[in-house]
Design brief:
With 724 residues, this protein is an alpha/beta fold. A 7-stranded parallel sheet has the order 3-4-2-5-6-1-7, sandwiched between helices. Bound molecules: adenosine-5'-diphosphate (ADP).
């Protein structure tokens, strides 16, 4: 059996598993049922695709949408994998041909919808062949707690009874415990392994801003990504239409997408976007599942979504290729009112849940803590990094006020004096000295807090109330959406005593924000060559009737424009190029590179620079944040060169961090970071010269090992001293 590592390299041209991929694949090989939860872009498909190639027999993949099946099958076939899907777009003879290929044991993966899989005819057929395993993609569709419940998925309950010997595996990006549990139960999995990855997407940069002049705000984001693909979400269809029209009028390449459009128009707009014929799609939530495009460089929300789950799903469509991408959210308090109204038709129980969920996103928007942390903690995980280096808060892009404690205390004491019986709007009116009748009626114009924040303006006070709620100093109580009252929490009481301070934003939205886009993943990339290759990719994809990202991802194009290989062998060293791609496109790509490099005098085969991995490194990271981050990456087994890139520190500084971590965590094996041969030599030398000083070691090894490596090795050897 070919090893998974070899398959990863040969077929996909990748040299490392992403987190949990190896574990998920081992479950498949071992025939142990599993539920795998990885965020969008985490690499779920590979978890079943690679084992399908390693195992004898046919893997059956259940998928909810034809477009999803098509993208996956196209990508597999383009990588030289024998895969097919049976769906309503095929005629009888095409279906027969696939059946024949299965009988001849040629096919490795077969994609089906649940309803097609569970027809007696398909089941009878499958009983006659050797099935390696069943993979249920988008498995949350089986749970009515998920956001995409599909009753057809419930039919899959019988799989385990009908094929008791065959492993069944569910894959989803949906984070909640409840959904996970439903998947295992509904699929009747036997003692399943449940693998849950981190919900953090470090390559996404989050920015949240109050909505002001929306078109200007949106254009600022687009202008940072001039030639890139982006998705803009709006809450209502009318907003989709008007924003798309404004963008087109301003000369941008944009199309609308919503459920009110004619089917054909909608499909065409989607295809134009997927095939890079148009750069921007402006859409409602209807534009969603089935969008596998890997090179979406930004997602903009022009209003708050109805839940943080939804925000994570939608913003998660950016940067699936692992390269940095930007997610911007523009909102106003009114958005939550719209959602409350839209959901008020729900049955009472469901409405209650919806309100609770809405509060989560409300807090997220108003919060002024690290966005990555807020998301990860919302989903019940812990976030270790002090500074994510990838959100407006951690990048210090937001303006905080100088006296947040005093303002916070004024607001909270007003809430208390009002008897904790009024909402945010009312509280803001009191604090800004309103003489509205209801305030006079309740005598609140007599409170000492009345008019205390008159000079700040009502809008600013409303925002601060949201921020205080987002940070847990206030909470909203009451199920009646229209009348949610504010209460001071325990943390709020500490704030009143001056023991903790909130973070509050300056009221005005800055006129022009710089909004940095990280350029680390562009390091060493020749932009001109990248554009040449991108143009070639578009043409090539069109000729083959494939979306461009199926031919090569942006990450692969950047690798090509960075390393500029000169031979077919070196081409295989490029990220994302396996044997089939090299055979299919290699000659043309090499020619394009040669044509570009020759007149520009660019060197070829530049492989000695490590590709940047962790993207958003900035120079303003404080020393301790850099150290913390470096250690986190080292714990993941990342190399010294990698970590240097990621935290923007010198090799010697980063080696010091590593040595410190080795001491603290009593690590004795440094071969993650220095090669085994060098380590063996250092160990032998240390047995003779001891470990007190590095200089004698350095000299004993005649300068062939760097001081950095010596420091790392010595730290390990001190934990497990060599015997003379
Ligand atoms: P998901 O289904 O979890 O959203 P995909 O399976 O579509 O994610 O993978 C996202 C992208 O990451 C794809 O372009 C895929 O080829 C790529 N990918 C998956 N695994 C790896 C890996 N180990 N190394 C590099 N890229 C990977």
């Amino acid at each position: 059996m070919e090893s998974l590592e070899t398959i990863l390299r040969r077929v996909w041209g990748y040299d490392q598993f992403r987190p949990l991929q190896a574990e998920a694949m081992q479950c498949v090989l071992a025939g142990r049922d599993s539920v795998v939860v990885l965020p969008t872009g985490g690499g779920k498909s590979l978890c079943f695709q690679a084992p399908a190639l390693a195992m004898p027999g046919l893997a059956v993949v259940v998928s909810p949408l034809i477009s999803l099946m098509k993208d996956q099958v196209d990508t597999l076939v383009d990588n030289g994998v024998a895969a097919a899907s049976v769906n309503s777009t095929l005629d009888a003879s095409e279906r027969r041909e696939i059946a024949e290929r299965i009988r001849r044991e040629e096919l490795k993966l077969l994609y089906l919808s649940p309803e097609r899989l569970m027809t007696p005819r398909t089941l009878d057929f499958l009983r006659t062949i050797n099935i390696s395993f069943f993979a249920v993609d988008e498995a949350h569709c089986i749970s009515d707690w998920g956001h995409d419940f599909r009753p057809e998925y419930r039919m899959l309950r019988q799989l385990k009874e009908l094929f008791p010997q065959v492993g069944v595996h569910g894959y989803t990006a949906t984070a909640t415990e409840r959904v996970r549990h439903d998947i295992a139960r509904e699929l009747q999995l036997r003692e399943p392994e449940i693998l849950v990855g981190s919900f953090d997407r470090p390559n996404l940069i989050y920015r949240i801003e109050r909505r002001g002049d929306l078109v200007r705000q949106v254009r600022e984001v687009i202008d940072r990504h001039r030639d890139d693909s982006g998705i803009i979400y709006c809450i209502r269809r009318a907003d989709v239409e008007s924003l798309a029209a404004s963008l087109v009028a301003a000369g941008y390449s944009a199309l609308p997408y919503h459920a009110g459009l004619d089917d054909q128009v909608r499909r065409k707009n989607q295809d134009d976007f997927l095939n890079d014929r148009v750069r921007i799609i402006v859409a409602t939530v209807a534009f969603g599942m089935g969008i596998d495009k890997s090179d979406v460089r930004y997602v903009i929300h022009t209003g708050a979504p109805k839940s943080l789950e939804q925000f994570q799903q939608e913003s998660g469509r950016a940067g699936r290729d692992g390269l940095e991408a930007e997610c911007c959210l523009f909102y106003t308090g009114g958005d939550f009112g719209i959602w409350r109204k839209m959901q008020s038709e729900l049955p009472p129980e469901a409405y209650k849940v919806a309100l609770q969920v809405l509060r989560g996103i409300e807090d997220f928007c108003g919060g002024v803590t690290c966005r990555h942390r807020a998301i990860v903690e919302y989903f019940g995980q812990t976030f270790e990094s002090e500074n994510c280096q990838a959100c407006d808060v951690c990048l210090s892009e937001i303006d905080v006020i100088d006296d947040p404690l005093v303002i916070g205390q004024k607001i909270l004491s007003s809430v208390l004096r009002q008897g904790e019986a009024y909402g945010a709007e009312y509280t803001a009116l009191v604090l800004t000295g309103s003489r509205e009748q209801r305030i006079l009626d309740s005598g609140h114009d007599q409170l000492s807090t009345w008019g205390l924040l008159k000079d700040e303006g009502k809008r600013a006070v409303r925002d601060w109330i949201e921020q205080l709620t987002g940070q847990g100093f206030l909470e909203r109580a009451g199920d009646d959406a229209k009348f949610q009252v504010l209460k001071v929490t325990t943390a709020g009481r500490r704030l009143l005593r001056g023991e903790v301070a909130p973070r509050l934003l300056k009221p005005q939205v800055k006129e022009k924000r710089e909004g940095r886009v990280s350029t680390v993943s562009w390091e060493g990339v020749d932009r001109g060559l990248f554009e040449v290759l991108r143009a070639w990719r578009r043409k090539r994809a069109e000729a083959r009737g494939l979306p461009p990202f199926v031919v090569f991802s942006d990450a692969t194009l950047r690798s090509l424009a960075r390393h500029r290989p000169s031979t077919p062998e070196r081409l295989l060293d490029v990220h994302g190029i396996g044997q089939a791609k090299a055979a299919d496109y290699g000659a043309e790509v090499l020619e394009k590179i040669a044509e570009y490099c020759r007149p520009n005098g660019l060197p070829r085969d530049v492989f000695d620079v490590p590709p940047p991995r962790r993207q958003p490194a900035t120079s303003d990271v404080s020393g301790s944040a850099a150290k913390h981050e470096a250690m986190r990456l080292f714990r993941q087994g990342r190399s010294v060169a990698d970590v240097c890139q990621a935290v923007g520190r010198s090799r010697s500084t980063v080696s010091d961090y590593l040595a410190e971590m080795i001491v603290a965590e009593e690590i004795s094996d440094p071969t993650f970071w220095i090669d085994a041969h060098s380590f063996a030599r250092i160990r032998a030398a240390a047995a003779r010269c001891g470990l007190d000083r590095l200089k004698p070691l350095y000299e004993a090894l005649e300068g062939t090992v760097t001081y950095e490596d010596l420091r790392i090795a010595a730290a390990c050897l001190r934990n497990a001293p060599p015997t003379p």
